[in-house]
């Protein structure tokens, strides 16, 4: 009987979570890309709307499709932080300082949580690589917003670029996970025996 630590931390249906999360990231990315308005108020509205919807949707899906209690807890905290950041973005008076601070704090917390989840699951699931990449990428966004003096146009543009890259990464990772799980377990063995 396999050790519980060796079991994959996610259920077979987990591939839906990154796909939904990726699609939800691509929507505000498109809104930012095609809008001439890159003001802090616009950035907060787009970020806030995306964060509330994404946090609720992926949080609920993640709780249903994750087995590992620690990873499930990390994702629940990340979803809660995301929704809270979204609600703040939608309700507080807009300013560039608030926009950059809110996005950087959100990105630092959720990036660290996802990075830790990926490192914890390494060797147990291929999805861990996507968690590590997305977590590191989100943490880099936090550092850019914290360390570099950026104007409103650049800040909103960087958020849009982050959402595009994250969305593409997650959609590809989710479908790759689904297709890998659909492959028969003996397909690799059959290919190996034909070569010998």
Describe the structure.
The chain is mostly helical and 196 residues long. It is 79% helix and 0% strand. The protein has seven helices and no strands. Helix 2 packs parallel to helix 6 and helix 3 runs antiparallel to helix 4 (96-121). The two termini are 32 Å apart.
List strands and helices in order, with pairings.
Elements: H1 16-34, H2 40-65, H3 69-91, H4 96-121, H5 127-147, H6 152-182, H7 187-195
Structural descriptors:
196 residues; mainly alpha; 7 helices
Write a brief structural summary.
This protein is mainly α.
Quote the beta fraction: under 5%
Distance N terminus to C terminus? 32 Å
Total number of β-strand segments? 0
* Category from helices, strands and their pairing: mainly alpha
Overall 3D shape: elongated
User: Percent of residues in helical segments?
Assistant: over 70%
Number of helices: 7
Major sheet description: none
Spell out the helices and strands N to C. Answer: HHHHHHH
This entry's quaternary arrangement is single chain
In angstroms, what is the radius of gyration? 18 Å
The residue ranges in which pLDDT falls below 50 over 5 or more consecutive positions are: 1-5, 186-196
Whole-number mean pLDDT:
88
């Amino acid at each position: 009987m396999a050790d519980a630590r060796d079991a994959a931390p996610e259920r077979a249906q987990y591939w839906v979570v990154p796909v939904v999360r990726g699609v939800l990231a691509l929507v505000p990315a498109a809104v930012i890309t095609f809008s001439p308005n890159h003001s802090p108020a616009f950035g907060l509205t787009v970020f806030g709307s995306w964060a509330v919807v994404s946090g609720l949707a992926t949080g609920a899906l993640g709780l249903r499709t994750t087995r590992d209690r620690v990873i499930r807890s990390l994702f629940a905290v990340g979803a809660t932080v995301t929704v809270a950041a979204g609600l703040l973005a939608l309700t507080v008076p807009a300013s560039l300082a608030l926009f950059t601070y809110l996005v950087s704090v959100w990105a630092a917390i959720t990036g660290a949580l996802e990075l830790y989840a990926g490192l914890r699951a390494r060797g147990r699931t291929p999805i861990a690589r996507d968690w590590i990449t997305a977590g590191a990428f989100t943490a880099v966004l936090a550092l850019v917003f914290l360390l570099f003096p950026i104007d409103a146009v650049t800040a909103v543009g960087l958020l849009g670029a982050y959402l595009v890259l994250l969305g593409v990464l997650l959609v590809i990772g989710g479908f790759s996970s689904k297709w890998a799980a659909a492959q028969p377990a003996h397909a690799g063995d059959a290919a190996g025996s034909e070569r010998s």
